[in-house]
Design a protein that fits this description.
Shape: globular
Organism: Ligilactobacillus salitolerans
Helix content: 10-25%
Structural class: alpha+beta
CATH topology: Streptococcus thermophilus LMG 18311 protein like
CATH architecture: 3-Layer(aba) Sandwich
Largest sheet: 6 strands, antiparallel
CATH superfamily: Streptococcus thermophilus LMG 18311 protein like
Protein name: DUF1827 domain-containing protein
Distance between the termini: 30 Å
InterPro entries: DUF1827 (IPR014959), LMG18311-like_sf (IPR038226)
CATH class: Alpha Beta
Order of helices and strands: EHEEEHEE
Length: 93
Amino acid sequence: MLNLIDVTNSYAREIRQELRSSSVHYIKVYTLGNSVVVHKKKNEQHEIVISNKIRSVTKNEVDFVLDKLLGEKREQASVTNAGNLVEIEAQIN
């Protein structure tokens, strides 16, 4: 069973710094088992990165994140899979 756990507070210093120095206006960090999921919103766009230092990110993990974070907008998402790193982009509106 997959579960996203919000660990944003553990990265508070890094998030605060990025919010000050970039056009990003929303950042959440989650764990998904051994994988880390970073969800950012900027300029009408979702940017989601799933990374795992130990193994490749699975299709089930990608599908789960798409469902949980994008919902109906998942069909509009662009997914780039590089094994241990998956990048997802989608328009907010």
